[in-house]
Amino acid sequence: MAHVEFLDETMRDGQQSLWGLRMRAGMALPVAPLLDQTGFSTIDLTGGGMLDVLTRYCQENYWEGLDLLVEAMPETPLRAGLRANANVTFSVSPRALMDLWVRRLCAHGIRSFWIYDVLFGMDNMLRLAKVAKESDAKVAGAIMFALSPVHTNDYFADKVRQLASSPDIDSILLYDTAGVLEKERLEGLLPKLVAQAKGKPIEFHANNLLGLSGKAYCDAVDLGVSVLHTASKPMANGPSVPSTEITARNMELKGHTHSLDKSLFQPVADHFRAVGKSAGFLVDQFAEYDAFSEEHQIPGGMMGTFKAQLAQHNMMDRLSDVLDEVAAVRRDLGYPGMATPFSQLVGIQAVLNIVTGERYGTVPDEVVQYAAGFYGETVAPVDPDVMDRIMNAPRAKEVLDNPPPDPDLDELKKQYGTEDLDELIYRATVPQADIDKMRAAGPVRRDYPLLSSPELEQARKLMRIAKSPVVEVKTAGLDISLRR
After folding, report:
1. Which residues are CB-neighbours of 288 under 8 A, at least 6 positions away?
2. SS3 of 393, please?
3. Alpha carbon 41 to chain centroid distance?
4. DSSP H/E element including 83
5. Taking residues 26-31, what's their average pLDDT?
6. What's the pTM?
7. If you average pLDDT over every residue of the chain, what do you get?
C-alpha cells in the first residue's frame, strides 16, 4: 500500500479544458482558502495562456488577479506551467523572455513549475529549470505521452534519464493529454520510467477524454506513481482530469492513504458548479470511449475549435473527414505529440487540407517552421513528399529567411519601451489595444455574481439558439431584449 499525494488542477487544467481559460480571479477567490486547506501537495494555478485570454477576452489584469489568488492560498505551493520554448505564441519566444517569465512568476509567489517540450528540447527545459531554482522553486520535468510507432517505452525512459540526471529537476510528470494510457501500456512503461528517475517522484496527469483515466490512476499507483492530478468534480472529467472526489475514494478502496480533508470537497464543488452554470460554462462532464481517439489524439479543448472553424465554412458535415485528416497529417509530420503547439499546427493544417480541397496547398508559417526544425528536431522524419510541398509553399522562403529573433533582456526593454518587467511581459505577448481595454475596465473583481432563476435559465437557452441579430420576448412577468 502507498501514500498518495494529490495535486489540484481545478483552477488550471480543469478550467482550461472546460472553460477555455476564462476563469477570472473572482470566480475562484471565495473558495481558494478552502482549496488551500484541503491538503493538496501543490495547486496548479496558472500559465501563459491565462495571461493572454484573461487580458484579451475578459479585460482582467492578469498580474493583479494572480496576486489575489496567491495571497488567498499561503499554505500550499502554487504551480505554473511552461512550454520550454514559447509563451502564448504558437511560434518560438526569445529565451530572455522565457527566463524573465519564470522570474516574474516566482516574484509573484509561484513556487512550483512543470516544464514541457513535446519535442523534448532538453537545453530549453533544463535552462528554465535552473532559472526556477534561483528562487528555490520545485520543478517537474514533463514526459508528454503520445501513441506512435516511434514513441516507445525506451524512448520515454531515455527522456526521463536525461531529466532526472539534472539536480534542477525534482520530479517527473507523465502527462497523457489524450487519456489513452491503459493498464497494459502502463505495465510496460512505468517500471522503465521509475528505473530511470533516480528515486525522484513520478506524477501522473491524464485527461479523461475516453473515460479511462480514473482506472489508469489506480493502476499507476500500483506501478510506482506517487502524485495524481485531479480536479473538483464540476471541473473534472471529459477533457479535464479525473475528479478528486472519486480518485480519493478509489485510493481508499485500494488500501492507499492520502492527506486530503474530504469535508472540504463539497463546498468547493458547490461553488464552482454554481459559478460555471451562472457563466454558461461546462461543468460535471463525462466521456464515452471512442477508439478512433487513439489515432488522432486530439486534446479535448481543440474539438470546439474544429467545429467553429468548419461552421464558418458551412462544412460541419465534414468533421469526421477532418478527424481522419488529423491522423494523416500527424503521420506526415513525423508523429509530433498532440500538445501545444503541435496539436494546433496539425489541426489547422488538417482543416486547411479539407476546406481548400488540396492537401498542403495552403501551409501556415508555423508548419514551415516546424518542418525546418525551428522548434527542434522532429521525433520522426517528415514524409519526403510532404516536406517538398511544405518547402514549396508560397511563403516558405520568406519564413526560412527570417528565423525567430532571440534578443536579450536589454534589447527587449528597448524594443518594448519599458523598464517595468511585468509590463514588458505584457507588451511582448499581448496586443497593446487589448492591454489598454483591460486597464480601462478597472480593478479585478473579487467575486462573481451568482445569478440564477428559472427566467434566467430560459434567457440562457434563448441566447444559445437565437440566430437573428435582434430577439425580443415580452410576457406578463418578463421582458428580454437580445442584441448580437
Report:
1. 210, 211
2. coil
3. 20
4. strand 78-83
5. 97
6. 0.87
7. 91
